[in-house]
Amino acid sequence: MLGALCNALVCLAVWLSYSARTTADKILAIVPPIAAFVAAGFEHSVANMFFIPMGLLIKADSAFVSQQHGLPPLANLTWGRFFFANLLPVTIGNIIGGAAMVGAVYWFVYLRSPAAEPSAAPAEAPPSPAHR
Q1: Which long-range contacts link 48-54 to residues 24+ away (Cβ below 8 Å)?
Q2: pLDDT tens digits, one per residue of 55-77
Q3: Residue 42 and residue 44: Cα distance in Å, rounded?
Q4: CA pair distance 115, 9, nearest whole angstrom
Q5: Are 34 and 9 in contact, with CB atoms under 8 Å apart?
Q6: 72-102 residue pLDDT tens
Q7: Buried-state track 83-121, b at ≥16 Cβ within 10 A, e below 16
């Protein structure tokens, strides 16, 4: 759920940026949804692909880790747990959040049947033989 809700907010930021005209408007449009997913603790697979490997690399430096106080236990932080317990479920959640929670909703909202769409300019009748 953390991945699905996160990507719903990320997709909302993208849609909001499409409605902006200037670069400043685009920046101001994406800040609230992105800040909301960070503040709520939602997870995004691309962000996790930076932060968790960075933690794994820091964990490998035992001299650095021994100097830090108040670190959480790092024994459970492994590459296998990163891929299978975090990256895979978060990526699936991101896909569900982007495709189902945002994409499908927009598709249903803007779904129009072909008969309901206004036709282009009416076709003109071919000239009659008398007009040639």
Answers
A1: 48/82, 48/86, 48/87, 48/90, 49/87, 52/77, 52/82, 52/86, 52/87, 53/82
A2: 899 888 888 888 888 877 788 89
A3: 7
A4: 34
A5: yes
A6: 778 889 999 999 999 999 999 999 998 888 8
A7: eeebbeebbebbebbbeebbeeeeeeeeeeeeeeeeeee
